[in-house]
Design brief:
single chain; alpha+beta; 6-stranded mixed beta sheet; 5-stranded antiparallel beta sheet
Protein backbone atom coordinates (compact mmCIF):
# COMPACT_ATOMS: atom_id res chain seq x y z
CA UNK A 1 0.00 0.00 0.00
CA UNK A 2 1.26 3.49 -0.84
CA UNK A 3 1.19 5.81 2.15
CA UNK A 4 2.83 8.79 0.43
CA UNK A 5 -0.44 10.76 0.17
CA UNK A 6 -0.93 10.58 3.93
CA UNK A 7 1.67 13.28 4.55
CA UNK A 8 -0.65 15.88 3.06
CA UNK A 9 -3.07 15.67 6.00
CA UNK A 10 -2.43 16.78 9.57
CA UNK A 11 -2.88 14.19 12.31
CA UNK A 12 -1.66 16.20 15.32
CA UNK A 13 -1.60 19.86 16.31
CA UNK A 14 0.17 21.20 19.40
CA UNK A 15 -1.32 24.61 20.19
CA UNK A 16 0.33 26.98 22.65
CA UNK A 17 1.53 24.31 25.09
CA UNK A 18 3.28 25.60 28.21
CA UNK A 19 4.36 23.70 31.31
CA UNK A 20 5.94 24.91 34.55
CA UNK A 21 7.22 22.65 37.33
CA UNK A 22 7.17 23.82 40.92
CA UNK A 23 10.60 24.89 42.17
CA UNK A 24 11.97 25.51 38.67
CA UNK A 25 12.65 29.09 37.59
CA UNK A 26 12.26 28.58 33.85
CA UNK A 27 9.26 26.84 32.23
CA UNK A 28 9.77 23.30 30.98
CA UNK A 29 7.77 24.20 27.86
CA UNK A 30 6.83 27.66 26.64
CA UNK A 31 4.27 28.39 23.90
CA UNK A 32 4.88 25.26 21.82
CA UNK A 33 3.06 25.21 18.46
CA UNK A 34 3.64 22.25 16.15
CA UNK A 35 1.91 20.43 13.32
CA UNK A 36 2.45 16.75 12.48
CA UNK A 37 1.32 15.18 9.21
CA UNK A 38 0.08 11.63 8.95
CA UNK A 39 2.85 9.18 8.02
CA UNK A 40 5.56 11.67 9.01
CA UNK A 41 8.60 10.71 11.08
CA UNK A 42 9.74 13.56 13.33
CA UNK A 43 12.67 13.77 15.72
CA UNK A 44 12.70 16.00 18.78
CA UNK A 45 16.21 17.31 19.37
CA UNK A 46 17.63 19.39 22.18
CA UNK A 47 20.02 19.26 25.09
CA UNK A 48 19.06 17.59 28.38
CA UNK A 49 16.33 19.50 30.16
CA UNK A 50 15.00 21.18 27.01
CA UNK A 51 11.53 19.68 27.49
CA UNK A 52 11.54 16.80 24.98
CA UNK A 53 10.20 14.06 27.27
CA UNK A 54 7.63 16.36 28.87
CA UNK A 55 6.30 17.24 25.42
CA UNK A 56 5.99 13.56 24.49
CA UNK A 57 4.09 12.81 27.70
CA UNK A 58 1.71 15.74 27.16
CA UNK A 59 1.03 14.61 23.58
CA UNK A 60 0.31 11.09 24.88
CA UNK A 61 -2.15 12.45 27.46
CA UNK A 62 0.01 11.29 30.35
CA UNK A 63 0.95 14.71 31.72
CA UNK A 64 -0.99 17.91 32.30
CA UNK A 65 -0.34 21.17 30.51
CA UNK A 66 -0.68 24.59 32.13
CA UNK A 67 -1.83 26.32 28.95
CA UNK A 68 -2.66 25.23 25.42
CA UNK A 69 -3.96 21.95 24.07
CA UNK A 70 -3.12 18.98 21.91
CA UNK A 71 -5.47 18.15 19.05
CA UNK A 72 -5.34 14.61 17.66
CA UNK A 73 -7.49 13.89 14.59
CA UNK A 74 -9.57 16.96 15.30
CA UNK A 75 -10.27 16.17 18.97
CA UNK A 76 -8.61 17.44 22.14
CA UNK A 77 -6.29 14.96 23.90
CA UNK A 78 -7.45 14.78 27.50
CA UNK A 79 -4.92 15.02 30.31
CA UNK A 80 -4.67 12.70 33.35
CA UNK A 81 -7.10 14.81 35.38
CA UNK A 82 -9.78 14.36 32.73
CA UNK A 83 -9.64 10.58 32.39
CA UNK A 84 -9.93 7.65 34.76
CA UNK A 85 -7.01 5.94 33.02
CA UNK A 86 -4.45 8.39 31.66
CA UNK A 87 -3.38 8.18 28.05
CA UNK A 88 -4.90 8.23 24.58
CA UNK A 89 -5.93 4.85 23.20
CA UNK A 90 -4.52 5.57 19.72
CA UNK A 91 -1.20 7.04 20.88
CA UNK A 92 1.54 4.74 22.14
CA UNK A 93 4.55 5.99 24.13
CA UNK A 94 7.58 3.72 24.42
CA UNK A 95 9.78 5.10 27.20
CA UNK A 96 12.44 3.95 29.65
CA UNK A 97 9.90 2.30 31.98
CA UNK A 98 9.07 -0.70 29.83
CA UNK A 99 5.44 -1.83 29.88
CA UNK A 100 5.72 -5.60 29.50
CA UNK A 101 3.56 -8.58 30.43
CA UNK A 102 5.42 -10.28 33.26
CA UNK A 103 5.40 -14.04 33.73
CA UNK A 104 5.04 -14.30 29.95
CA UNK A 105 7.62 -15.25 27.34
CA UNK A 106 8.98 -12.86 24.74
CA UNK A 107 6.92 -14.61 22.07
CA UNK A 108 3.73 -14.36 24.15
CA UNK A 109 4.33 -10.68 24.88
CA UNK A 110 4.26 -9.86 21.18
CA UNK A 111 1.64 -12.38 20.07
CA UNK A 112 -0.91 -11.12 22.60
CA UNK A 113 -0.89 -7.77 20.78
CA UNK A 114 -1.78 -9.57 17.53
CA UNK A 115 -4.77 -11.61 18.71
CA UNK A 116 -6.97 -9.96 16.09
CA UNK A 117 -5.05 -11.80 13.34
CA UNK A 118 -5.61 -15.32 12.04
CA UNK A 119 -3.31 -17.71 13.98
CA UNK A 120 -1.02 -18.25 10.99
CA UNK A 121 -0.75 -14.50 10.38
CA UNK A 122 -0.25 -13.88 14.09
CA UNK A 123 2.69 -16.27 14.14
CA UNK A 124 4.22 -14.81 10.97
CA UNK A 125 3.94 -11.24 12.25
CA UNK A 126 5.31 -12.15 15.67
CA UNK A 127 8.34 -13.83 14.13
CA UNK A 128 8.95 -10.86 11.84
CA UNK A 129 8.85 -8.36 14.71
CA UNK A 130 11.22 -10.50 16.74
CA UNK A 131 13.60 -10.53 13.78
CA UNK A 132 13.40 -6.75 13.31
CA UNK A 133 14.16 -6.17 16.99
CA UNK A 134 16.77 -8.98 17.08
CA UNK A 135 15.06 -10.93 19.87
CA UNK A 136 14.19 -14.16 18.01
CA UNK A 137 16.71 -16.10 20.09
CA UNK A 138 14.84 -14.97 23.22
CA UNK A 139 11.42 -16.25 22.12
CA UNK A 140 11.03 -18.72 25.00
CA UNK A 141 12.62 -16.50 27.65
CA UNK A 142 10.45 -14.90 30.32
CA UNK A 143 10.47 -11.15 30.85
CA UNK A 144 12.09 -11.58 34.26
CA UNK A 145 15.11 -13.21 32.59
CA UNK A 146 15.82 -10.34 30.21
CA UNK A 147 18.48 -7.63 30.43
CA UNK A 148 17.64 -3.94 30.14
CA UNK A 149 18.53 -3.84 26.47
CA UNK A 150 16.49 -6.97 25.75
CA UNK A 151 13.48 -5.50 27.53
CA UNK A 152 13.82 -2.34 25.50
CA UNK A 153 13.77 -4.29 22.24
CA UNK A 154 10.74 -6.28 23.42
CA UNK A 155 8.91 -3.06 24.30
CA UNK A 156 9.62 -1.79 20.78
CA UNK A 157 8.30 -4.99 19.21
CA UNK A 158 5.11 -4.82 21.29
CA UNK A 159 4.52 -1.21 20.30
CA UNK A 160 5.01 -2.03 16.61
CA UNK A 161 2.60 -4.93 16.92
CA UNK A 162 -0.12 -2.53 18.02
CA UNK A 163 0.45 -0.30 14.97
CA UNK A 164 -0.78 2.77 16.87
CA UNK A 165 -1.98 5.81 14.92
CA UNK A 166 0.81 7.78 16.60
CA UNK A 167 3.97 6.17 17.98
CA UNK A 168 6.12 8.14 20.42
CA UNK A 169 9.64 6.82 21.02
CA UNK A 170 11.65 8.19 23.94
CA UNK A 171 15.30 7.18 23.50
CA UNK A 172 14.42 3.86 21.79
CA UNK A 173 18.06 2.79 21.38
CA UNK A 174 19.54 4.02 24.67
CA UNK A 175 20.26 0.56 26.13
CA UNK A 176 21.62 -1.00 22.94
CA UNK A 177 25.23 -1.71 22.06
CA UNK A 178 26.42 0.33 19.03
CA UNK A 179 26.65 -2.65 16.67
CA UNK A 180 23.18 -3.90 17.64
CA UNK A 181 21.73 -0.43 17.29
CA UNK A 182 23.09 -0.16 13.74
CA UNK A 183 21.48 -3.49 12.84
CA UNK A 184 18.08 -2.62 14.28
CA UNK A 185 17.77 1.05 13.39
CA UNK A 186 17.19 0.78 9.65
CA UNK A 187 15.10 -2.41 9.77
CA UNK A 188 12.88 -0.77 12.38
CA UNK A 189 12.33 2.38 10.35
CA UNK A 190 11.85 0.46 7.10
CA UNK A 191 8.99 -1.32 8.87
CA UNK A 192 7.61 2.02 10.08
CA UNK A 193 7.73 3.43 6.54
CA UNK A 194 6.18 0.28 5.10
CA UNK A 195 3.22 0.46 7.49
CA UNK A 196 2.87 4.23 7.15
CA UNK A 197 3.16 4.81 10.89
CA UNK A 198 3.37 8.35 12.25
CA UNK A 199 6.28 8.73 14.68
CA UNK A 200 7.80 11.29 17.03
CA UNK A 201 11.18 10.19 18.36
CA UNK A 202 13.55 11.56 20.98
CA UNK A 203 17.19 10.54 20.71
CA UNK A 204 20.45 12.06 21.92
CA UNK A 205 22.29 10.50 18.98
CA UNK A 206 22.32 13.02 16.09
CA UNK A 207 22.70 10.14 13.61
CA UNK A 208 19.23 8.91 14.55
CA UNK A 209 17.58 12.27 13.92
CA UNK A 210 19.51 13.05 10.74
CA UNK A 211 19.19 9.66 9.06
CA UNK A 212 15.67 8.58 10.04
CA UNK A 213 13.53 11.72 10.13
CA UNK A 214 11.44 13.65 7.64
CA UNK A 215 11.46 16.65 9.97
CA UNK A 216 13.41 17.70 13.06
CA UNK A 217 11.96 19.93 15.78
CA UNK A 218 14.69 21.55 17.89
CA UNK A 219 13.86 22.55 21.46
CA UNK A 220 15.94 24.94 23.54
CA UNK A 221 14.92 26.05 27.03
CA UNK A 222 11.39 24.80 26.46
CA UNK A 223 10.79 26.58 23.15
CA UNK A 224 10.94 25.42 19.52
CA UNK A 225 13.84 27.35 17.97
CA UNK A 226 13.98 25.54 14.62
CA UNK A 227 11.92 23.15 12.50
CA UNK A 228 13.09 21.77 9.17
CA UNK A 229 14.41 18.84 7.21
CA UNK A 230 17.54 17.09 8.54
CA UNK A 231 19.68 18.77 5.88
CA UNK A 232 18.27 22.22 6.71
CA UNK A 233 18.78 21.81 10.44
CA UNK A 234 22.32 20.46 9.94
CA UNK A 235 23.65 22.97 7.41
CA UNK A 236 21.35 25.94 8.11
CA UNK A 237 21.23 25.87 11.91
CA UNK A 238 19.68 29.00 13.40
CA UNK A 239 22.38 29.29 16.07
CA UNK A 240 25.75 27.84 17.08
CA UNK A 241 23.99 26.01 19.93
CA UNK A 242 21.65 24.24 17.52
CA UNK A 243 24.52 23.43 15.15
CA UNK A 244 26.48 21.79 17.98
CA UNK A 245 23.60 19.39 18.71
CA UNK A 246 24.25 17.63 15.41
CA UNK A 247 28.01 17.25 15.45
CA UNK A 248 31.27 19.12 15.36
CA UNK A 249 31.10 22.73 14.20
CA UNK A 250 34.07 25.08 13.75
CA UNK A 251 33.21 28.46 15.24
CA UNK A 252 35.14 31.70 15.07
CA UNK A 253 34.70 35.45 15.00
CA UNK A 254 34.53 36.70 11.40
CA UNK A 255 37.20 39.29 12.11
CA UNK A 256 39.60 36.53 13.24
CA UNK A 257 39.11 34.38 10.13
CA UNK A 258 39.19 37.07 7.44
CA UNK A 259 42.92 37.88 7.76
CA UNK A 260 43.72 34.19 7.21
CA UNK A 261 41.89 33.91 3.88
CA UNK A 262 43.33 34.48 0.43
CA UNK A 263 42.10 37.38 -1.72
CA UNK A 264 39.53 35.32 -3.65
CA UNK A 265 37.87 33.98 -0.50
CA UNK A 266 38.02 37.35 1.21
CA UNK A 267 36.18 39.07 -1.66
CA UNK A 268 33.20 36.76 -1.21
CA UNK A 269 32.90 37.81 2.45
CA UNK A 270 32.73 41.54 1.88
CA UNK A 271 29.97 43.16 3.92
CA UNK A 272 30.09 40.66 6.78
CA UNK A 273 30.34 42.26 10.21
CA UNK A 274 33.75 41.36 11.73
CA UNK A 275 31.95 40.74 15.04
CA UNK A 276 29.68 38.11 13.48
CA UNK A 277 30.15 34.44 14.35
CA UNK A 278 31.12 32.12 11.51
CA UNK A 279 30.39 28.40 11.57
CA UNK A 280 31.40 25.61 9.21
CA UNK A 281 31.35 21.83 9.46
CA UNK A 282 34.64 19.85 9.36
CA UNK A 283 33.59 18.08 6.14
CA UNK A 284 33.43 21.45 4.34
CA UNK A 285 37.23 21.69 4.45
CA UNK A 286 39.22 19.94 1.73
CA UNK A 287 42.99 19.41 1.60
CA UNK A 288 44.31 20.77 -1.73
CA UNK A 289 47.73 21.38 -3.32
CA UNK A 290 49.66 24.48 -2.29
CA UNK A 291 48.24 27.64 -3.82
CA UNK A 292 44.79 26.18 -4.43
CA UNK A 293 43.23 26.72 -1.04
CA UNK A 294 41.62 29.50 0.93
CA UNK A 295 43.72 29.16 4.08
CA UNK A 296 46.56 27.13 5.54
CA UNK A 297 47.67 25.78 8.88
CA UNK A 298 49.72 23.16 10.68
CA UNK A 299 48.38 19.74 11.69
CA UNK A 300 48.40 19.53 15.49
CA UNK A 301 46.98 16.01 15.88
CA UNK A 302 44.78 13.46 14.15
CA UNK A 303 42.07 11.19 15.52
CA UNK A 304 41.28 7.84 13.90
CA UNK A 305 37.56 6.95 14.16
CA UNK A 306 37.54 3.80 12.07
CA UNK A 307 35.47 4.72 9.01
CA UNK A 308 36.97 8.22 8.96
CA UNK A 309 39.61 10.37 10.59
CA UNK A 310 39.60 13.87 12.02
CA UNK A 311 42.48 16.32 12.11
CA UNK A 312 43.00 19.40 14.24
CA UNK A 313 44.76 22.20 12.37
CA UNK A 314 46.15 25.41 13.84
CA UNK A 315 47.09 28.60 12.02
CA UNK A 316 50.13 30.77 12.83
CA UNK A 317 47.78 33.22 14.53
CA UNK A 318 46.58 30.53 16.95
CA UNK A 319 43.15 29.85 15.40
CA UNK A 320 42.36 26.10 15.43
CA UNK A 321 39.71 24.10 13.62
CA UNK A 322 38.85 20.51 12.68
CA UNK A 323 38.47 18.78 9.32
CA UNK A 324 37.30 15.31 8.31
CA UNK A 325 39.43 12.96 6.27
CA UNK A 326 38.98 9.55 4.61
CA UNK A 327 40.12 6.81 6.97
CA UNK A 328 43.16 5.90 4.85
CA UNK A 329 44.27 9.50 4.39
CA UNK A 330 47.12 10.18 6.81
CA UNK A 331 48.26 13.62 7.89
CA UNK A 332 51.31 13.53 10.16
CA UNK A 333 51.65 16.09 12.92
CA UNK A 334 53.42 19.35 12.06
CA UNK A 335 52.60 19.10 8.35
CA UNK A 336 51.52 22.37 6.72
CA UNK A 337 48.25 21.87 4.83
CA UNK A 338 46.39 24.09 2.36
CA UNK A 339 42.63 23.97 2.70
CA UNK A 340 39.68 24.86 0.52
CA UNK A 341 36.45 25.88 2.27
CA UNK A 342 33.07 25.11 0.71
CA UNK A 343 31.54 28.51 1.40
CA UNK A 344 28.06 27.51 0.18
CA UNK A 345 27.32 26.11 3.65
CA UNK A 346 29.25 28.69 5.65
CA UNK A 347 26.93 30.05 8.35
CA UNK A 348 27.07 33.64 9.54
CA UNK A 349 25.37 34.59 12.80
CA UNK A 350 25.10 38.10 14.14
CA UNK A 351 27.03 38.47 17.39
CA UNK A 352 24.84 37.45 20.33
CA UNK A 353 21.86 36.51 18.16
CA UNK A 354 20.36 33.19 17.07
CA UNK A 355 19.22 34.15 13.58
CA UNK A 356 21.71 33.63 10.72
CA UNK A 357 22.39 36.51 8.35
CA UNK A 358 21.12 35.57 4.90
Amino acid sequence: MDFSDKKESSILKVLGISRQFEGRDEPVLSGINLDLKEGEVVSLAGSSGSGKTSLLRIIAGLEETDTGEVIFRGKKVQGPSEKLIAGHESIRLVHQHFELAHRRTVYENIAQKLRHLHPSEQKEETLRLMEICRIGYLASKYVEELSGGEKQRLALARALAEEPELLLLDEPFSNLDPHLKEEIRYDLFNFIRERGLTVIMVSHDPKDALSLSDTIWVLRKGAVVQSGTPRQVYYESVSPEVAALFGRINLCRAGDLMPLLNVQALESMQGIDPESVLGFRPELLEVVPAGGGHLQGKVVETFFHGAASEAKVETREGFSFYLHLPAMFKLPADRIVHLKLNREYLRVWEAGEATPVQ
